[in-house]
Structure prediction request, 383 residues.
Amino acid sequence: MPCAIKTLLVTNDFPPTVGGIQSYLRDFAVELARRVGPESLVVFASTQDAAAARKWDASVPYTVVRWSHRVMLPTPSTARAMQRLIRTHGIDTVWFGAAAPLALMGPAAKRAGAATVIASTHGHEVGWAKVPIGRQALRGIGRSADIVTYISDYTLQRLRPAFGSGPRFVALPSGVDTAFFRPATVAQRTATRERLGVGDAPLVVCSSRLVARKGQDVLIRALPEVRRQAAGARLVIVGTGPDARRLHAIAGAEVVFTGAVPGEQLRDIVAAADVFAMPARTRLGGFDVEGLGIVYLEAQACGVPVVAGRSGGAPETVTPESAVVVNGRDTGEVARAIGGMLVDAQGRARMGAAGRAHVAERFSWDVLGDRLAALCGAAQPGR
Prediction:
């Protein structure tokens, strides 16, 4: 049943703009509205494309109020607009979708009547914690936030000292729709492989933004050795990004680039794989790190064994029964992990089943949606 608690989500990262945090908040907004009623959620978001934003906002059941600027900053004018929304809508909980820097408005939210302030972190705050001015900002956020959410133990260990001892820290990683991300039937797998032009070849898939941290270049360089172990193996790379031109330049005919694809097609490609691999590696002295890695979870939900990179929170998405974690800079290690899986069909089946069970237990929306709903109702008088 809908509850009386009302939540205001304040964010720069919201659809229709595409990105990891945008997807995270979109999905959690759906889950929260489903549990507490759409009338109990208001979103205050910046505007990158006004026409697209109007179309998106009209499609969702909860209220979206747009800040007219492309970027929302914690300025006095932004704080006053947020305070008006708190008072107008009778907001109890203010949830800053990305803690840095907007959660610096936490004190203003409480002065306007909010009882609880939640600040969500996603990984980029680890970089903030490395420099004095960033640590100062995070400590200020920690003084007013009641709850700080984190996506992995890796990020928690690096952020807890910066935020200080004031807030309660709660794990809130991305969830996975295990009804949508599911193993493919034989017919579905065959049809997808035919569309990709790979037939029944041993198939490795990587779906992610094409950026250096994700390690698609290592997959391409490892593929000749993989093919010596598993004859005819193919690599499908899904996604777009700034590294696209460089990756195309080093890839051979055995590599298929799909570009960006719709969600159902992405799911079908991942589910048609024999192995999902993304050998992520930390870069720039720790400033560029994999906070968690939702794609590892999606692949496991599809019953596909995983090769994950040892970067940030990525190893926390998998188990020894469902994946192999590798040094994403070591081409030989990556090749041996992938090749070993491709030649062991029974082992892949065991790993795939273990991965799906792992995601259903720890990362399903049934678990995480309930957790967010409880947080938004936490610390309220009489609750």
Observations:
- The CA atoms of residues 31 and 177 lie 11 Å apart.
- Residues 7-175+364-376 form a domain with the Rossmann fold fold (CATH 3.40.50.2000).
